[in-house]
Design goal:
Two copies of one chain form a homodimer.
Chain A (H helix, E strand, L loop, with lengths): L16 H19 L5 H10 L6 E2 H10 L6 H13 L3 E4 L4 E4 L10 E5 L5 E4 L2 H13 L3 E12 L1 H4 L1
Parallel strand pairs in A: 4-6
Antiparallel strand pairs in A: 1-3, 2-3, 4-5
Helix pairs in contact in A: 2-4, 3-4
The complex binds zinc ion (ZN) (4 copies).
One zinc ion binds next to loops of chain B.
The structure holds a DNA duplex (30 and 30 nucleotides).
Chain lengths: ~160, ~160
DNA sequence: TCATGTTATGTTATATTATAACATTGGAGG
DNA sequence: CCTCCAATGTTATAATATAACATAACATGA
């Protein structure tokens, strides 16, 4: 399998994503157990669907997929599961797309920073200290208490640029 | 009139905002004239409404206000005017609020960076080089071409924290 | 001036995203 | 079994945004 300098950001096309997904769900189960939060079958199923790819998923696409899997589902079904997963830090909301993506490191609390490809929709999640520091410095200078920093960088990923 | 170290970010409550607004519209007119873009009465009216305060405005609130001013208006009326103003860099869209705010420096092309108060909704627009550099550094490391960086920092402004 | 193409606006309908409100289900603990 | 509570089901509707087509305003050259 080929690797490149960029692999630490975007997952290559041929990576073993089934494993990413299994691990993400297993991690979620562990975390929820630790916290006494209930990762019910519905919530687990939504998390699996969100983890379909390293790309944000729309709420109504999740709804369609739940229905395709013979589950009774209406918009609140999906939004409530998403709310739970957001609260637990297991997924992030991508504001600029009204979409949801799995968190790559739910053990550590963090606000997401994202590189999002406009062509293939792939997302790379960052947690860059320099961006964080720079934001904090500006906030401090303004006497501003940061609650939820949102950093979403839209553009073209290296694979799509080729 | 009192001033404080934070004034360069958030406008104080007692600043002369009528003047901000007049200047913003005048600047817009100048810019559009330079570019051969048409700041029609409708577009100018929407820009004035967006500049009501240093806070993001919702599209449907603009719609209501246009109607209150005896103008025939439907959603496309507003969205088309907003699209024009966005293209000209005269306003920014706040993704995390589905709302629109006047740009404080439309002469220079830039992506907005915003501090947004969750309490009073006031917005401070930044164009901080350090944040920009940090973002660019990460993008470069990932082989990513930045097209539209979005930085929206939600929190509590100094006035509301007091 | 008029014909013509182009841009802007009006109009109707509908798509997309999200929440309110209330009913039902199904365990955990007594 | 009963009770409580969290989770889910269900119906309706709110909030945000766009598609598609009609008309009006405007520019520009014949
Ligand atoms: Zn993967
Ligand atoms: Zn994350
Ligand atoms: Zn002002
Ligand atoms: Zn700006």
């Amino acid at each position: 399998m080929q690797t490149s300098a960029h692999d630490q950001y975007f997952r290559s096309d041929d990576h073993n994503h089934a494993r990413c997904r299994r691990e993400a769900v297993a991690t979620a189960a562990t975390l929820c157990a630790q916290r006494g939060a209930r990762l019910t079958p519905l919530r687990r199923q939504v998390l699996e669907l969100v983890w379909a790819r390293h790309a944000p998923v729309l709420a109504y696409d999740l709804l369609d997929q739940l229905r395709a899997r013979q589950r009774r589902a209406a918009p609140p079904t999906v939004y409530r599961a998403l709310d739970f997963l957001l609260e637990q830090g297991l997924i992030h909301r991508i504001e600029s797309m009204n979409a949801y993506v799995g968190c790559v490191d739910p053990f550590v609390e963090h606000a997401g920073q994202f590189l999002i490809c406009n062509r293939c929709r792939s997302v790379a999640e960052l947690d860059d200290a320099e961006i964080g520091e720079a934001v904090k410095a500006q906030a401090t200078a303004a006497g501003f208490q940061v609650m939820r920093p949102t950093v979403e960088i839209r553009g073209i990923c290296s694979a799509c640029a080729r």
